[in-house]
Amino acid sequence: MFLPLEKIVQQEKLQNNLDYLESFLRRLTLEDENSVFKSIPKKEVFSLSYSALQVFKNKKSTKDNSSYRIYIPETQTMDPIAAFKSRLYKFEHIKNPCWYEPPFIVPNIIKEMQMLWHGQVFSKEIPTPNMKEVLTDIRTKWFLHRQTKFKCFPYFYIMSSNNCIRNEIVNLLIQHPQIKAPSKIDIDFWPNVRSDNIDSYADNFEIPSNFLAEDKFIITFDASSSTFFQNNQLFNSKGQQKYSTADFIHAFNKNVKIFVFLQNPVTKLYADYLTNENTSNPQQFHDEVIESITMFKKCLQVCKLVECIHQKNFTQTYPVSLHLGIYWVFLERWYHKFSTQQMKLYSIEDALNCKKCLMDNIHSFLSISDFSSKESNPNIFYNCLNPEIPMLKETKIILNAFYSPYNKKLAQITGNTNFLWQ
């Protein structure tokens, strides 16, 4: 059986607790002379933390004794770009965008406070949280983490249309002593970005951030395979274009460096099919290619190209991911936010002809020292690009004809004829 909060805690006691909490928080910030909050206005205390608490005064009714409340801001309802810009600190001597995270208040304490002051119900078996115990716990956690965490986001991005090749390039890159890898390669954060889960993204770079706190020359990266292609927030519920993945990344670091590795879309489509469908039937692939091209052309009769490529109600119906090989449409979004001086594009087939040249080029673009990586097994790169069971010749002819005009557009935009894949 559940009882409402007012049945458990009298209004007078609740008011006393809340008054005491405000006084406690004020004393706590004054006691800690080295607090990162020292220069922050009182009303913003706790609001900078991603696990933030905010203390504010409710002036809706003079009859309401609960004049102070505690809550976790619902930042996902804000303009995400504006929310991001307000949270970031940039240290000029560090390439990665970094900031100091204020002391962390553990989630279970936050939850208890929410329940206590939002008037939510308690079970008879669960006693009302004791105010002094809660505040003692806060004090302990505050001073335990008073040194604050140094957190960083990536300085550069690796975007590849072939995950196998991407993994090998990453393995070569992290041999350089100045490059530290995140905790996992496929983070896949930006296409599904929400301003209330930034902290979880930053956690992936905790190890590189620890190095960065001691060595300003360290850089880290994000090599998520979905970053270049997916734009899940590009259209709102009315079908209007809103934010692209490039918009979000630019909001955090307008000086970011980006490497894009593109495979021949014909061989990419076949490789993705073999991997995702867990099958090795060239004839089935041929049939689904024919069906997908037919559906795509019908879409173009009623919609714009960008909608047929990005709108899920279209793309999720294609038997094969034909749209992902129309690279110039995706690239156009990135060029809208980032200059060509910030982006390096490579044809995978061409780049792998000289891996040392590729690594030297990347190191130079990142403005880091030269470093000779250990040579990787050449068979790995060959296997990444050449499946055991070849595609049917007639399928290849059809796909070459389909992608040819889009490849020409890509070559025109980039000024690189390698993207013709002839």
Radius of gyration: 27 Å
- Straight-line N-to-C gap: 73 Å
CATH architecture call of the largest domain: 3-Layer(aba) Sandwich
- Domains, number: 2
GO molecular function, one term: N-acetylgalactosamine 4-sulfate 6-O-sulfotransferase activity
EC number: 2.8.2.33
InterPro entries: CS_Sulfotransferase (IPR052654), P-loop_NTPase (IPR027417)
Keywords: Transferase
What structural keywords apply?
single chain, about 425 residues, alpha/beta, Rossmann fold, 2 domains, five-stranded parallel β-sheet, two-stranded antiparallel sheet, about 45% helix, globular, disordered N terminus, CS_Sulfotransferase, EC 2.8.2.33, P-loop_NTPase, N-acetylgalactosamine 4-sulfate 6-O-sulfotransferase activity
Description:
There is one protein chain. This protein is of the alpha/beta class and 422 residues long. The chain folds into two domains: 2-88 and 103-147, no CATH class; 153-420, P-loop containing nucleotide triphosphate hydrolases (Rossmann fold, 3-Layer(aba) Sandwich). It has helices at residues 5-8, 11-31, 80-87, 107-117, 131-144, 163-173, 198-203, 206-214, 245-252, 265-276, 282-302, 305-310, 312-315, 327-337, 348-351, 355-365, 378-385, 393-414, and strands at 2-3, 54-57, 68-71, 98-101, 122-123, 149-152, 156-160, 179-180, 219-222, 257-262, 343-347. The strands form four sheets. Strands 8-9-7-10-11 form a five-stranded parallel beta sheet, with helices on both faces. A two-stranded antiparallel sheet has the order 1-5. The longest helix is centred in the C-terminal third of the chain and has 22 residues, at 393-414. The protein is globular, with a radius of gyration of 27 Å.
